[in-house]
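Each field is listed here:
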Amino acid sequence: MGVEDKERIETRFGPLWSGKTEITFCGSVRTLRDVKRSLGLEGSDAVGIDLHELSVDRYAFRFYDGDDRRVVVLVLDAEGEILEEHRAHVAEWLGDMYHETGLMAFDPDAMANLLRKKIAGEV
């Protein structure tokens, strides 16, 4: 895993936070929180990033996984079954800044916020 994983994620799904916060999925409008819950990720260190409609029956849920400090994309079918999983370490986006985060690296919400600010050019 490395830069090529980050590039694959960005090429296929766009820049982080470029997707939607809700989509029509599994017969109803689903939010990031709904999808996270349906995948059994409630209570985990997963922080939702965005959702993508890939085709009529393919969707993607992108999130930051604080447990292993990676950006994750799950590609789902119309029934919500996982078809693909892609992962890239958050350091691929943060660069040297990642190594300066100290204890923040153990706070998934803080890391996702830092990542969002980095993507937006605010830090």
Remarks:
- Residues 3-119 form one domain.
- The chain has one domain: 3-119.
